[in-house]
TrEMBL record:
Keywords assigned: Ribonucleoprotein, Ribosomal protein, RNA-binding, rRNA-binding
Biased composition regions of type Basic residues, renumbered to the chain: 7-22
Designated gene of the protein: rpsT
Record's GO cellular component terms: cytosol; small ribosomal subunit
GO BP terms, alphabetized: translation
NCBIfam families on file: S20
Family the entry assigns: Belongs to the bacterial ribosomal protein bS20 family.
Species of origin: Pigmentiphaga aceris
Keyword Cell division: no
Protein name: Small ribosomal subunit protein bS20
Length: 87
């Protein structure tokens, strides 16, 4: 248990930050799953529109340092390649 006022405040902040970051990470995973589902369905048009929205989500999460920028680039690259392969 935190003994000082500063440590108690830091503990409160950590809980709030964890809750916020978890929701952003969940949003990221959900949007990636939506693209994967559209790819699995074989619908290139739908996959492309969902991918554009997902790219925005991935960039937002990376800008907030929830995930590393290279991981964000890797996700976008792999999703784009999967959509391109649908031809």
């Amino acid at each position: 248990m935190a003994n000082t006022a500063q440590a108690r405040k830091r503990a409160r902040q950590a809980v709030a930050r964890n809750k916020h970051n978890s929701s952003l990470r969940s949003m990221l995973r959900t949007s990636i799953k939506r693209v994967r589902q559209a790819i699995d369905a074989g619908d290139k048009a739908a996959a492309t529109t969902v991918y554009q929205k997902t790219t925005s989500v991935i960039d937002r999460v990376a800008d907030k340092n929830i995930i590393h920028k290279n991981k964000a680039a890797r996700h976008k690259s792999r999703l784009a390649a999967a959509i391109k392969a649908l031809a």
